[in-house]
Amino acid sequence: MAENLNYNAPDSKCYDNIEANCATYGRLYNWATAMGIDAKYNMEEWGGSDLKHKGICPTGWHIPSNADWGVLITTVGSETAGRYLKATSGWRDYEGKSGNGTDDFGFSALPGGYGYSDGVFSYAGDNGDWWSSSEYDSNYAYYRYMYYYNENADWDYGDKSGLFSVRCLQGLSEATHSVAMGVAKKNLRHGGADTCQTLCSQGFGEANENRKKHRRSI
């Protein structure tokens, strides 16, 4: 999950409907589109499992659940995860200070903004918002967000009809995931330069490149 998904799925949009913004930020998706399910579930409870749900991700990848996101944020450093996950350019300054991050783990989070169901777009350059596969209720689902003016990476639930960015998580087995997390946490405690690389750059890896190599209809 080293970049935002830029798969041209039905009902996905480029920010402000400008193609160049897709090249920069990836495409924006409503929740049902991201999940690859009927659009009616933007307004109805889906009730399916959020565990390794493929959605519009390529084979071998899935939409990360709220728990998956939680593992990433906790491993990187809960209160300052945004600092380490945000890209080194592209974020607006705040009160004379850079809103960019250090991108220590190659996650390269970009402020792609979001869109509304009525066609309005807002806040590119200011914040990034990424869907999870976890449903809150019939109208809302969980997502993660980062802002230009702080170092946090927090969760909330948003209207499913809203247009957010998507990252895909590689489908690691439970055993592999446990090993990766153990290594990441050990490196974090000892300040290793490769802290969280397995989860940030391999687990949350190059889904777009994978899709180009294994193009298939969804």
Question: Which characteristics define this entry?
Answer:
218 residues, alpha+beta, 3-stranded antiparallel sheet, two-stranded antiparallel sheet, 7 helices, 7 strands, 28% helix, globular, disordered C terminus
Topology:
Blueprint: H1 19-25, H2 31-35, E1 61-62, H3 66-77, H4 81-85, E2 114-115, E3 121-122, E4 127-135, E5 140-147, E6 154-159, E7 169-170, H5 174-190, H6 197-203, H7 207-213
Antiparallel strand pairs: 1-7, 2-3, 4-5, 5-6
Written account of the structure:
The chain is α+β, with helices and mostly antiparallel strands. It has one domain. The protein contains seven helices and seven strands, in the order H-H-E-H-H-E-E-E-E-E-E-H-H-H. The strands form three sheets. A three-stranded antiparallel β-sheet has the order 4-5-6. A hairpin with a 5-residue loop joins strand 2 (114-115) and strand 3. The model is unreliable at 183-196 and 206-218 (pLDDT under 50).
Give a quick rundown of the structure:
The chain has 218 residues and is of the alpha+beta class. It contains seven helices and seven strands; from the N terminus they run ααβααββββββααα. The chain has helices at 19-25, 31-35, 66-77, 81-85, 174-190, 197-203, 207-213, and strands spanning 61-62, 114-115, 121-122, 127-135, 140-147, 154-159, 169-170.
